[in-house]
Amino acid sequence: MVGTDTRTIVVAGGSLAGHTVVTELDRRGFTGEVVWVRGDESVSPYSKPALSKEFMQGKLTAGDISLPAPPADGSRLRVIDGTLCARLDADADRVLVGDEWISFDALFICTGMRARVPAHFTGLPGVHSLRTLADAAAIRAQLDSRPRAVVVGAGLIGSETAASLRSLGLPVELVVQGRLPMEAVVGEELGRFCLERHHSHGVTTRLSATVTELSAGRAGGPITVAFDDGATTEAGLVVLGLGATTACGWLEGSGLDLSDGVLCDASLRARPSVFAAGDIANWPNPVFGGRMRVEHWSNASAQARHAVESWSADQEGRRRPAFADVPYFWSDQYGLKYQMVGHARGHDEVRVESAGGDGARPLVTYYRDGRLVAAAGVNATRAVMRMKSRIHCPDREPGPGDGPLPSGRPTRTAVTSPHVPGREKTT
Ligand SMILES: Cc1cc2nc3c(=O)[nH]c(=O)nc-3n(C[C@H](O)[C@H](O)[C@H](O)COP(=O)(O)OP(=O)(O)OC[C@H]3O[C@@H](n4cnc5c(N)ncnc54)[C@H](O)[C@@H]3O)c2cc1C
Asked: Can you give the residue ranges of the FAD/NAD(P)-binding domain (predicted)?
């Protein structure tokens, strides 16, 4: 009944995970107060994946990617925009927002990540990171002058950005710190495939290169990009895709374990009244046996729903369920859909089910101790999803946290029969 529930829930973070928590609380009929602290972006919540894809290409507008407005009735919703949660006093169950301490019965931490930008790369016009709508809009505002673009970093966001800018006809150079673009995300085989796609679309790549300095001789003039081998190049636009760091600063001193994001138990609970979800949550995933933190879209919404379920279970005296999940992400580049399921870290065998080429769809599977732990493919949705349903690793020893694929050399096997692992193997 509206008005009789005196509980207060604080939701920190105004993106996908926070939005999903607020929506899920309403869907479950929560009638207490929800205080939603949405952070320092002064825009309505939006979905990020299109920022480096359709939004950058001018195919979608900010309105197209906004998340649905939160439900107005049911729970009493107080939205706080333009302000960050500044501190958590976990012993007193209260959070500092601006100069107001807000007491809570439950807190959901959904503050995600911030772009990693080295201090010496900041402050130059024409140099952008890409994490927020404002970042993407600033990049788009520069595109009419058709600048030469240098994209620094070739993970998922850097590689997508290079593809999007190239599809608009810009001259693009992609700086790859490692040997191959996307290798840390999808592994060597698909990394090589990705490199070939960039080349066939006319992107210049600089491999095993590190940018040491960005400078501009005069206002409005080109940016000089300097590399560790002494080489330089010029650009009108520089996009930094150097990864992101967890937005945990406001939680320092709270007593929460912040060794890699917010460390939770398997149910996504960090303290009796504190839960976390999305890019910031680090939890022991029972499917793999070890802790991980997953920086992907579908994880953020699934975890947010699960965190609310865990809180509800506590409220109703039920056992909190574990968040047992096989991670998934996709990436769109040059009209191709890269997809990956599972968790490849620690794998000791790679099977190339299909190498791609001649119209074939690349598909790679990863194994550990003979068990399938991950699969990645390009334009191979059905095959990748079939692999997803086969990933079960219940007995694995806890491993280290999430991270890039190891650079070691696991066994590599070419499987001649596409999409059917384990048959007709040739080494
Ligand atoms: C350009 C780009 C492209 C992407 N493409 C894909 C893709 O193709 N496929 C895929 O699976 N994933 C993709 N992702 C990842 C996906 O968008 C993220 O996994 C998802 O946004 C995570 O949501 P989140 O709510 O956990 O965190 P975030 O999206 O990081 O949101 C955190 C929110 O918290 C706010 N905040 C921060 N600090 C505070 C504070 N102290 N107090 C209050 N609020 C705070 C922030 O302003 C923000 O609103 C992409 C991400 C980016 C940036």
From this structure: 8-304
